[in-house]
Every structure is written in structure tokens, then in C-alpha cells.
């Protein structure tokens, strides 16, 4: 059985994970780095906004799943994610800057974020995730498709652990998926295949977790 | 439950060599290059003036470059695409030209460049009305898309998946690669001692992937089988590949294991072979690590068709299957003197291969993404 062993999210000015619930950081829309990143994230400030939110939500989910991470050891973890606007904001930023420079020179550090997979790649580079990395946009069922695809990758032995989720303007929510004999009773999380039923937005994820934590799965 | 085998039953492509796998394969086999001086936009201040473009396309018209290419592919020449086919669109920048138009002269809308819009158009053009999704994995987008399609078939999620891949030469991507100093000032020379970077190319392709069972039931002639795939990430750097090649090695090993294929069964390697110093060296390091002392014919098509970005994996898949059918590994176009690391692996000449064996295909992309596929001609049960 493939189960969800961790959930992390950034939403509505708050952040959270399944085991600890919602919190607010008075200083920022993002969580304090010490609560997300197990070791220094050198260039975090230079990331585009979408990558920052994605990395934080992925970090919260991995921490929630109690996965030990080290800068010196890469792991067989893969990432599948999506965003309904793709890389539109970064596309505009890059090309407007190029036009403003007289169409003579683009800026490489803006161009690298013009791929929709770049926020996921930033997370993979920082967290040392050696597994599959794929952006997949199914507008009808963003959470269901990313989680299903990630589950199939685990079944196909592409990686032992997968992170799957969604980044949008209002935030991000990511799930850690792993093979398990039974759902983790500690956080009352459902098996992955069932957990996505009725989930279509980040708000749905947060509401479901809060509900489960209050009433049980 | 037995695993369903994923087979390619129909395909087509358009590249700088023209319409069809046949013209592309023949062009590459003859050693001629489709790379030319680029007249689509000004390149004086950029690091290259060369690209591999499809003839007859019009830039900054209402129909985007990729739409113009794709319309040509679904013109009724072959059997209609089944309307229940799921659809995977693999691209890096799709219709980015619509965003260019809007920001340059306000004659479009930026949201028009969202790949979901293109997905809707492709669904209408192709007739594939099943579940649709966009997949993107940088320059490994369409090899990853083909892996995804095959996985859907194997998992029983769909028995018919149309994978469509496309990307175009636009000022957006050209200036971007230039900004990263990734372009060669002359046409790309993959695996050459004096290689200096890549040449941007454009193209579009599709492959109809079916379960073996449905293909037989509906009387399709099988072009090839996607036997196995492996995806990985270097987890190392956003734009540069890992010099140790561990991510690529991992992807190759996963693909070969999934395909239940040994070293002796691989007859050729269709490499990503962009022509950048680091990519080509990293790939050769990976091939050497996996295949040890056994030098297998390696080629890159990018000296001919250029680097077609999100379309590269699918175009290269169809060319690799054709190479197996012909029993010939292609020459690497524009190769003059092989780099030391590639000596004995690559060639300026076509080489005979075992057509009953398998092909290994590799792609890599920004963000450290790697994809490997094991392909073979259909051998039946």
C-alpha cells in the first residue's frame, strides 16, 4: 500500500504540516527557515517566488514525514508537481527584462525560472532528491494526477519515496508518499489512492488535514 | 496481474529536414545538417546566428510556430487518432511566441502562452479527446512524456495514449540560451574535440502508444516497444550537469532493469549530445561507467536537427527505432575529430548494428533532470 506519510503547506498567510497543524509567521508569509530547512539554504533569497514557496512546502512535508536529510547525502526521493499558471510570472519577468535591455542580452538567472519544472528542481537540488522529477499539469485533477503519477513511480521502483503536490499563487501543498503496510496511525493519514478524493485546491488539503486531526480519518 | 506492454503504433514528425521520420533519418544518415543562418529575428548581439528551423513557418503570425508545425502532422495522412486516446503534451515553452507578441507590441495576450491552451488546441487537431495533461521536464520533456504514457498503459490507466511533443525557435529561448553562454557560434558539433555549445532547433512529433492487446485487436502495425524507462535528477545544479554523471547512470540503470535488458542487448545509444562541453563529457562518463569496456555505437542528432528542447526525446525515439529497423547506427553530423572521451564510441560514418537488439536513449535538462529509455523493435511475445 502506498501511504501519505507527510504533508506540508503554505496557505492563507499560514504554514503547517499534518502532525503540527497551522502556524503563522509574523515576519513573513513563509515559515522561519529553521522550521523548514535542516541545513543552510545558501541562495534561497535569489530563488523566484514560486520556487521559494515550493521549497518551503516540500521541506515541511519531508519534515512531517520524519525523513532525515543531510547536505552530504542524496536520497532516492522523486518530485512530481504542478502549477496552473506554469512559469508565466517568470516568463514575463525574463522577457520584459530582455526587452528593457534593448533586446541584446537576457539574464541567465531569470531565464532558468522560465521552465515550469524549475521550482521542483530547486527543491531537488537543495534536498538532494535523486529520484524522478516531473511537472505534470492536469487542470481537471491536479492533486489526484500528481499523487497518482508519483504512486505509480513508487510501484515501478523509480524511487522509494515521492513528493507530490501543487504550487499556486495562494500557496502550495505537498505530500510525501511511501510504501507502508498500513497508514501511519500517528497522523491519521489515509492511503494515497483514497486521500485525494474531493481534493482540488490547496484550501481543500488544509481543511481536510484539520478535519482529520480533529475527528480522525 | 501480467504487466501490459506499451507499444508505439503510429508516429510522425516535422523537423528542419521536412515532414516525416523518413526525411529526417535520411538527412542524418547522409551526414547533412539542417542548421542554417537564422533570419527569424536579429541575432547580432547574441552568441550565435545559427538555428535548425522548419521551412515555411511564419513568425509572429496569429498561429504560433508550434501550432503551424502540429497542424501539418494531423492532416489525415494516417489513420485517425482514436477519440478515446488520452493526451500528453510535452513541451518546454510551447506557444511562448504569444507572450513575446504581447510584450513586444501588445498584439496578443500573455495568458495565451499557457500550455493548457495549446493542449486544448492539440486535442482538437488530433482528435484525442480523452484525459489530457501537459508534462514538462526541461529538455527531457518528451522522453519523460513517453515514459509517462508507457507507465499509464502498463498500469492499466489507459490503453491508448497520444504523446505529442513540440518546441520552436523563438527569440525568447534563443536569447535565454545565449544568456547562459550555452550556444556554439558555429553549428553544433556534438562529441567533437572543438565543440563549443548547442544550436537551438525546432520540431514537433507524435507517437500513439497503445497496449499490445489493443494494438493487436485493432490491427495496428507495431513500430516499436518502450521496454523500460528511468527518470532521475542530479540534485546538483540548476543549469550544469553533474560531472560525476551519477544521475544519468542511475536513470540508465533503472531503464535497463525495468526493460530486463543487459549490456549485450544494447545495439546503439541515442545520446542527448547537445554539443556543450559539460553535457557531452558527462554523458560519455555515464556510458563508460555503465558499459565498461564495451564500446557501443553512440550518436547525437543535434548537429542535424539542432536541440529541439522539449521535442528532442520523441524525435530521437522515432529516429532510434528507425535506426534499429535499418540496422544502422547514424553518424554524428558535424563531428570532425571526436573528443578523447568519445573516441571509439561516436563516428562520422554510419555503422551496422544488430536490428534485433535494443536502443538506449538518453536526455537531460536544466534542473539536473535525466531520462533514459530502452526501445526495441516489436519482437512479439
Largest sheet of chain A: 7 strands, mixed
Report the total helices of chain A: 7
Oligomer: heterodimer
Q: Percent of residues of chain B in helical segments?
A: 25-40%
Structure overview:
The complex is a heterodimer of chains A (217) and B (381). With 217 residues, chain A is of the alpha/beta class. Chain A has one domain: Peroxisomal Thiolase, Chain A, domain 1. Chain A is 35% helix and 21% strand. Chain A contains seven helices and seven strands. Chain A has a seven-stranded mixed β-sheet, with helices on both faces. In chain A, a hairpin with a 3-residue loop joins strand 2 and strand 3 (21-24). The model of chain A has no long low-confidence stretch (mean pLDDT 91). Chain B has 381 residues and is an alpha/beta fold. In chain B, 30% of the residues lie in helices and 21% in strands. Chain B is built from ten helices and 15 strands. In chain B, strands 1, 2, 5, 6, 7, 8, 9, 10, 11, 14 and 15 form an eleven-stranded mixed β-sheet that branches. In chain B, strands 3-4 form a two-stranded antiparallel sheet. Chain B has a two-stranded antiparallel sheet with strand order 12-13. In chain B, helix 5 (141-154) packs across helix 10 (312-326) and helix 8 (246-258) packs across helix 9 (277-291). Chain B is globular and about 55 Å long. The mean pLDDT of chain B is 96. At the A-B interface, helix 2, helix 4, strand 5 and helix 5 of A face helix 3, strand 6, helix 5, helix 6 and strand 9 of B.
